[in-house]
Amino acid sequence: MKKRKWLLSGLITVMLMATLTACGGDKADSGSNGASNNTAGNTAANTADSKDTNSSAALDPFGRYEEPVTLHLVRSLDPNLKFDEGKSVEDNEFLDEIKKQLNIEIVYDWISAPADWDQKISLAISSNNIPDAAIVNLTQFKSMQKFNQLADSTDAFNSTASDMLKSFYESGGDALKQLVETDGKIMAIPATVPKASGMSQMWIRQDWLDKLGLEAPKNLEELKKVARAFIEQDPDGNGKNDTMGIVGPSKSGGLSGTDGNLYGLDPLFAAHKSFPLYWLENEQGEVVYGSTQPETKQALQTMAEMYKEGLIDKELLVRDDSLQPILDGKAGIFFGPWWTGYTIADAYKKDPTPDWQAYAYPQADDGNYYAHMAAPANTFVVVNKDCKNPEAVLKLINLLLRDEAKWVETGLGKNPGTSGGYPLFTVFDNVDEIEVSYDILNKYLKGEVEIDSVDFSTHKLLKDDMNAIKKLKKEPLDDFSITNWDLKDSGDLITTNLPRLVSIMVGDRPLATDQNIKEVYSLYYGQTDTMSSRWANLQKLEKETFAKIIMGSAPIDSFDEFVTKWNKQGGEKILGEVAEMSK
Amino acid sequence: MYSKKNIKHYWLMMAPGYIWLTLFSIVPMFGIVMAFQDFNPALGIFKSPWIGLENFRYMFSMDDITQVFINTIVIAVGKLIGNLIIPLIFALMLHELTIKKLVRPIQTLVYLPYFLSWVILGSIVLNIFGVDGPVNSLLSVFGVEPIVFFGREDLFRPLVIGSDIWKGFGYNAVIYLAALTSIDPSLHEAAAIDGAGRFKRLIHITLPGIKTTVILLAILSLGNVLNAGFDQIYNLYNPLVYSTGDIIDTWVYRAGLVELQFSLATAVGLLKSVVSFILIVTSYALADKFTGYKIF
């Protein structure tokens, strides 16, 4: 009897242990983390010893280390990505290439799902357990700098950055320097983004417009009329009253942003010359905050009226996912940046009827389309101050920039591509990359440019784009409606190239061709001292007030109360700091 | 029975729990000193500068911190009461069910949502109460205009409390069902012979029989009054319902992990822990007084 009891409790214990270890994945992780950190210390010490032998090759942008150098990195990884048989994120063609060309070995301290990334990296910062280098956002970069966790990358950048990387850095101008340099020291390597990514524009169902005999709406009044028609006149022709006008942001999205804000209502603000979240100079030359200006109040009032009439998504800011009504063919208008073309092209594969086209509308009263522009970079490669080989980080970026196009061409590591397999992958680009691509692709289609006459040295993907567009595009070559793409016989290209081409040719057409676009920049994109303690709270106040005004649960006059509160709760102090910083 | 020999395996069974408690609850407790520092991770908790009560002062100077505490308590108390009463009613109904064959299938069915995380359930709930969701379709039959449920401040708390009860009542009913089966059936038989109907027996036998369990559970859950459920609210809330739905945990999350204000977030978390501690001690004393329940 006793024996059996022992056996039973033993069994239960084992089972409990099993569940505990299964659930305690995190703990096991952090354990191995600690272990790998120790080895990090060891290898770092080793490489420090061997640094002398390495020094000659070390500073050359593409020089190969004689002794292997180990970099400890972290990354986010989409769990749905498919790697080729036998390959993984920790063992793939790109890592082999890095080892072969640079003699750098990559060790991942941890890998997280994209959804957990921010949380994971924040925890790494708070526990001072940061890798040799990482890709972070502006808030994280500035915090790490404040906490003195970052290396001064000036010397490494000057000696080891390739010419292409340096040209990207220069293309960002003073605004970029202001963002990453402190007292002339480069504290992070910015991933410069195409200018186009900062601008939102109107995407509209051209097939619905045609069906109802309407034109693309140029201003707010016309936009209201079209949205009304989309709701009332059954554009999808199913006999049901189930279509909506303008899609709004989901519960995790924002009404407006400082970047290309997909599903945001930024152009509706801009049509009133209102730029929430932007630091602007008023007519008296004072620094003001866009969200608290009278133009913003007007914009909110217009939106509240539109919402009440049902022209804007009823489930604005409540919706779980704003893409769903678009995929379901229920929505006719939304706002988003050029790269929304990637999403649209994915939808084409399922249902090729919706013909989405992009316009720099609605214009303000003066006939201009005001586009708020993003910071010249919003992701940064930061280097740990204890990293023994900061130049190795730059070499990784150099190699990616130089060889990415070649890898795409030869099909190296095609699954899952550089974004899934290359360490420290982020998009580095010329600020005007997309407009240049639009221009050259157009000329190429018209036969004005030959593929051999184009200089691809600073354009990573253009050659591939040119080859693909020849195969994908049908006559007439200057009309980019969905019916004029060859969706039947293009095989893989629909997955690999169509999304980018739609993004460029449809999504960037406004910025590349529209003469009435006025670009609006913020005076300051960084974070001031007071912002780091008060911003979360001020943002809460702002988001809550704006959402309530639009959805009618607060009167428009609560805007004035918001302005008073905002100033009182730290806003005034922040304005002073921003004025100081932007001088 | 009670001898040194057969006590060892009890310890063995408890070991995983103790290891877990030490690693995740006792060791991190040293981190609370961050609440009194201007914490800088590069310096660590030993070298970060001390700033006394500055974080607390700032916390109380903020307009909405009171509202955040009120939201937390209202939602948590609502859940606490609902999670006590609904499972009890459900357990009683299940117990009284005459078709015994149905008991198990029903129990399994209502048990299901308990196993889903709020990330998934959040989406489901949002869709059920969406403008095109089943609830609004049903209402439209009666001519009611579509309601944006999760955009309404006045509806957010009931929805959160309701969906939490829905998720947990199958699981919570288990304890009551166990207590119900422990009631001596001969009492029921005797009462039936004396002419007591079903309802009379419920009032005079069943309810007094499980009274101690109900009181005990009620008192012990007092310690959770400041836990309004981060996972759930984080997956359901939006800026429109901040005024009724922003709780301490979501506030700490936004301040601490999104804006990286570690010290301030710790200060708020510490205040929450202190209040919870007082409540737990009180509830333990009450449990001892009313039901003779003792752990130590």
TrEMBL record, chain A:
Any Pfam family: SBP_bac_1
Region (Disordered): 28-60
Alphabetical keyword list: Signal
Low complexity: compositionally biased ranges: 30-48
Cell membrane as UniProt keyword: no
UniProt keyword Signal, yes or no: yes
Signal peptide range in chain numbering: 1-24
Name of the protein in question: Sugar ABC transporter substrate-binding protein
Taxonomic path: Bacteria, Bacillati, Bacillota, Bacilli, Bacillales
InterPro entries (alphabetical): Bact_solute-bd_prot1, SBP
TrEMBL record, chain B:
Pfam annotation, one family: BPD_transp_1
Keyword field: Cell membrane, Membrane, Transmembrane, Transmembrane helix, Transport
Membrane-spanning segments: 12-36, 68-94, 106-129, 208-230, 262-287
Subcellular location per the Swiss-Prot or TrEMBL entry: Cell membrane
Mode of membrane association: Multi-pass membrane protein
Superkingdom field: Bacteria
ABC transmembrane type-1 domain: residues covered: 69-283
InterPro entries: MetI-like, MetI-like_sf, UgpAE/MalFG_permease
Major subcellular location class: membrane
PANTHER family, per database record: BLL4140 PROTEIN (PTHR43227:SF11)
Family: Belongs to the binding-protein-dependent transport system permease family.
Protein name: Sugar ABC transporter permease
Taxonomic source organism: Paenibacillus aceti
